[in-house]
Each structure stands twice: as structure tokens, then as C-alpha cells.
Design a protein that fits this description.
By secondary structure, the protein is of the alpha/beta class. It has helices at about 35-45, 50-60, 65-75, 85-100, 120-130, 140-150, 170-180, 195-205, 215-225, 230-240, and strands spanning about 15-20, 25-30, 100, 105, 115, 130-135, 160, 190-195, 210, 245. The chain is about 40% helix and about 10% strand. The termini are far apart.
């Protein structure tokens, strides 16, 4: 029988491994992946689909594959031209928006992605916690591209991506990352994500699930005069068992790992 996770924040052990989701955690994707979903839907007449619609589906969970989500949303719209539409067709359209179209010289929405946390913070986290992994629903090529572009690739020895197995909330990505890091899932493994699926995958194998607010949601909450973690995604993560919700950029994550004396 698996051990039960601690019931209070103070009873959690110090972190010995760090698993990070990518989109919304490391990468600001409101103008890339999220925008590509909207553009793909509009391409097939689903003009009622907005960023709020996408957020609502992300809150529900089970939406880790944006190609599949795009097709589902096209079918949802009464004006969506979904009859006979295949996932391959939707994927091709999505990738044209996200990657860009060399035939027309149109730049890809991926070029609009930015790094959310400070690079110096990532380096310090690696110094305190040598066992770090990416656990993402991105295709491996997109994951590798972002890490190299932002000079983070040397910080991660392990990346578990779309091609590797079932997506979150299935615990497989978390379990696989732990296997590749040569550790057992447990309370000292910290997993940081921005959706309920991330938290579900983490707590189902007794790891410490930490939520992080996305920049766009935190900004809207601030504009509305509410706490940064009051949006629907953060609320859903708490209900799924998130131990804490951190602000965008997760500066507070350093507190989870003991400082390392300088050499």
C-alpha cells in the first residue's frame, strides 16, 4: 500500500527532486499554444471559441493534447465545420499556426513564447536540487527547442514528453520522470504545474503537487482586486490536492530546497 502524503505543509520533507511542467510554468504560452487553438478553431468556422473557453476546458481536465482539444472545440461550436474533419487535418492546421508557414513566410506563434521565471532562479534551483526533470505534454521537438532557446537545456537531464506515454492526469509521466532520475515517487519529489491534471498526476503517486498561477490569470486577478490565486485554474488545483499555489515565476520554490554552501 502506498504511503499517505503529509497532511500539512510543515510535515513535508525537504525536496530531493524537482519536476516541472513547461507550458504556463516555464513558458508563457497565451500567445502561442493558446492562440494557436483559437486560430485553428476559427479556420474551421468555430468562431465562438475564446481563450475563456479554452481555460474552462483546462479546468475540467483531460485536455493535455492541444490538437485533440482543438478538434473537440470545433465540434462544440454549432458553426464549426467538423463533419469529416480528422485529427490529422486539425493537427496540420494547428502546427501551421504554431510553427509558422515557410511557404508564405508567416512566422510561427512559437516565436512569441517567453521564459516566465528568472534564468538565475533556474540555475540556483539546479544548484540546490541536481535532480530536475521536465514533465510536459509538448512534443519533444517543441520542448527541446524552448529549452535550448532559453539556455536551460543543460539544467535538465530528463524530459518526459508527449511521445513517451499516456498524458497527465495519468501518473505515467511523473512515474517515468522519477524512474529516469533513479528515484522513487514520494513526498520529497516536488512537481510544479499550472493545471488540475498536473496536480492529479502528482498526488496520485504521493508526490508533492505545487500549483503555479499563469501570468495572464494572475494579472487579471490583480486587475480585479483579487488574490493572485483566485482564478478558476488555481481554485481547481487546490481542490485536486495542491499543497501550495505559487505566483508566476515561482520565486518561492527556493524555500522547498535546502541552500547549498558555496564551494
Amino acid at each position: 500500500m502506498s504511503p499517505q502524503a503529509p497532511t500539512s505543509a510543515s510535515s513535508w520533507p525537504a525536496g530531493t527532486a524537482l519536476l516541472l511542467d513547461m507550458d504556463g510554468v516555464l513558458a508563457e504560452v497565451s500567445q502561442s499554444y493558446r492562440a494557436a487553438i483559437i486560430s485553428t478553431c476559427q479556420e474551421y468556422g468555430a468562431t465562438s471559441i475564446t481563450l475563456d473557453t479554452v481555460a474552462e476546458w483546462k479546468v475540467r481536465g483531460g485536455c493535455n493534447n492541444d490538437w485533440v482539444l482543438s478538434l473537440d472545440l470545433i465540434k462544440l461550436d454549432p458553426n464549426g465545420r467538423s463533419e469529416g474533419l480528422t485529427l490529422d487535418q486539425v493537427t496540420e492546421t494547428f502546427e501551421r499556426f504554431y510553427q509558422g508557414d515557410p511557404a508564405t513566410g508567416t512566422p510561427g506563434m512559437c516565436d512569441l513564447e517567453t521564459l516566465i521565471p528568472r534564468h538565475e532562479l533556474m540555475v540556483e534551483l539546479k544548484r540546490r536540487c541536481p535532480r530536475m526533470a521536465i514533465v510536459t505534454g509538448r512534443p519533444r521537438s517543441d520542448c527541446d527547442k524552448f529549452l535550448k532557446l532559453h539556455k536551460l537545456d543543460h539544467l535538465f537531464d530528463v524530459c518526459v514528453c508527449m511521445e513517451d506515454g499516456p498524458p497527465k492526469p495519468d501518473p505515467f509521466p511523473v512515474q517515468r520522470a522519477c524512474e529516469l532520475l533513479a528515484i522513487h515517487p514520494g513526498p520529497s519529489v516536488v512537481f510544479v504545474g499550472d493545471t488540475p491534471d498536473d496536480i492529479r498526476a502528482s498526488v496520485s503517486v504521493n508526490c508533492r503537487g505545487i500549483g503555479v498561477a499563469t501570468p495572464e490569470n494572475a494579472k487579471q486577478s490583480q486587475k480585479d482586486g483579487k488574490p493572485f490565486d483566485s482564478d478558476a485554474l488555481c481554485t481547481a488545483m487546490k481542490s485536486c490536492g495542491a499543497d501550495q499555489i505559487l505566483e508566476p515565476g515561482f520565486e518561492g520554490l527556493l524555500d522547498f530546497f535546502p541552500p547549498v554552501p558555496p564551494n
